[in-house]
Amino acid sequence: MVSKLQPKTENCFVSLYVNNKRCLVMYNREYLAFEPELTTTKTLLANNNDRVTIKLSDMMAVWICSCRIRRHKQRSHRSSIPLSCNCIENELKLQTQSSLSSSSITTSSTMVTKNRHESMINPSKKQPPFMVRIYYTIYDLPSRNKNGGFRLELLTLSTHDDDQHRQRQSSSSSASASMTIQSISSNNNNNDDDDDDIAIHRETQLLTEIAYSIRTKLESFDRPKRLLLFINPYGGNKKGIQIFENKIKPILNISCIRSNVIITEHANQAKEILLAETTDLNDYDGIICIGGDGMFGEVLNGVLIRTQRENQINYGNIDAMLKKPALKLGIVPAGSTDAVVYATCGHKDPIHSIISIVLGRTINIDVGAVHNRDEEQLIRYTASFMGYGFFGDTIRESERIRWMGTKRYDWAGVKKFLKHRLYSGEIKICLEPNDGSPKDYNPCGINCSTCQQAGIKSRETLSADDSPACISIRGRFLAINSAIVSGRCHMSKYGMSPMAHVGNGCADLILVSKCSRFQYLRYLFSVAFHTKSPFEFDFIDSYRVREFEFNPIVEPTHKRKGYMFEKSIDCDFFDTFEECDYGYESAINDEINIDRVSKNSYKSNIQRQKQSNRKKRCILSSSVWNCDGEIVNDPAIHVKIHCQLIELYAPGFDVGRLLANGNIRQ
Ligand SMILES: Nc1ncnc2c1ncn2[C@@H]1O[C@H](COP(=O)(O)OP(=O)(O)OP(=O)(O)O)[C@@H](O)[C@H]1O
């Protein structure tokens, strides 16, 4: 019987004892090896004589294995032989929930015990075959006692089909298993070295009891039990469904997480479903999207708006205190840019993301509320990047050529780079000295102290010292970029603002003013390859802001509503507003002087210039905002950052790994 079972606290290493001997641990070797604590584990695994210990909190699930062991005379012999085992059997039920979507699948898993040589599970003939095969790799060590003690070191379990398994085996033996079980057998009570060994337990009941105990402990952790999943089948390389079937579903099943899967049929469907009153979200612990930043934006907006409505909060008002949703969100990357995943996980790997979800690892991230400047209306919520000018024009162009796939961004970017268009505008920002600057060397990573302090502060009342200073900047800009997260992605080594924090309650605002094409190219290179710090150029200004407002400067006779300049000078943004043109003298020299001029003289001034200079007329038009890869047509906006408004399933950015890739320039 189980004499001592000690999965102590969440932070302790797993030490399970049967008759005072450790007997069984299980974890995801391939992917958890990315975690810093387990880097050494990977090394240990290479050495047959070493033991592997892992944190209980790193365990995804417990499976039961009972084994017949074949002894090998040869020392340190390795073989791959199938053994009888107990395994998880999955039940898949097809449920059509017309209220949600026509393609809604519910999966559930139950643990059963069966003795088989190899277990293949094909839950339903109607479903595409989902197989779980179990493979064992045995490291047979020399027996150390007369009674023929033996030790079973490693059992590898693969959730892939035969071909995939063989491919993985041949490509890299260390990466052959997606799951690893260590089971130590052989007992030699007379041998002092054998402290960690145990007697082999063939009795299923005993192992069931052990597994049950571990599972009970794991269930007490704050991990999701039921998830709502949205898949965008058209995001990125259109591999959303494939990623779900091949990588996500098996891990959800292993971890006994029930999921409701909705494959979207059109843009905005996820948001509509989340906002529909008929959709009951109470059953879920979290909402996961399989897609890119745009798809995550849909889910984010749906969940946030729903939460505010349920709590009768007037979210149209920019100053409203927003309520944090109870539901946690998660992203499995299947888009083109996936900037939020890069910033919160460190890389773009669907399996790594789903493991964070399964283990219930979360971080709190900031959200920007984008409001219409004139009408006090919410336009949308954003969690990563906003860009006006160059990036606004690029996204507008790229949407027209979506058929080009992910290459569309490169093509549109080159086109807009050659145009090299300047846009006039006035930006009003709030600066708080304690927030620091985007230029400060302070990378945001796992357990980031800056974000932790900001989280505590945002819950407390702000003191008088915290009241921000507000300034106004007018000029002509090639681009105005706002980064809530660093913006790191496959196109940019460290992102637009490498030191941006995911939860400091601020956005990094980067203003690119007038410069030559060559200079701008150098700047874009520095963002993409980090050849030098992107903030070193004299035409770049950067600010860390909690709030900002932008008004384009366009001709007052412009037909479209809300873009007339006289509205923007009648500003009510902050009472304590200081006007400031610093750093922009050269840029505003040929700018129309609009300060405190009468409406008529301003009009005639503009018209004079319009007739005399065609180029200037171009300057006086406006761009659009690129908001998380989506177009916001209204250029006059007000953005407020809400500190840590969302709890996201993610492990946090491993700064150590980032620094190992090369220095981030200050
Ligand atoms: N079934 C669908 N058909 C067409 N569009 C969809 C569908 N489902 C979602 N969308 C929309 O597709 C847009 C882009 O999706 P997504 O963000 O997943 O991919 P992406 O744009 O390639 O990646 P990224 O945003 O990371 O660059 C989203 O704005 C979303 O609203």
UniProtKB/TrEMBL annotation:
InterPro entries to which the protein is assigned, alphabetical: ATP-NAD_kinase_N (IPR017438), CERK_C (IPR045363), Diacylglycerol_kinase_cat_dom (IPR001206), Lipid_Phosphate_FormReg (IPR050187), NAD/diacylglycerol_kinase_sf (IPR016064)
Lineage of source species: Eukaryota, Metazoa, Ecdysozoa, Arthropoda, Chelicerata
A cellular component term, taken from the record's GO annotations: membrane
UniProt xrefs under Gene3D superfamilies: 2.60.200.40, Probable inorganic polyphosphate/atp-NAD kinase, domain 1
GO BP annotation list: ceramide metabolic process
Chain intervals with Low complexity compositional bias: 169-190
SMART domains for this protein: DAGKc
Region called Disordered, residue ranges: 105-125, 161-196
Provenance organism: Dermatophagoides farinae
Domain DAGKc: 222-374
Protein name: DAGKc domain-containing protein
GO MF term (any one): ceramide kinase activity
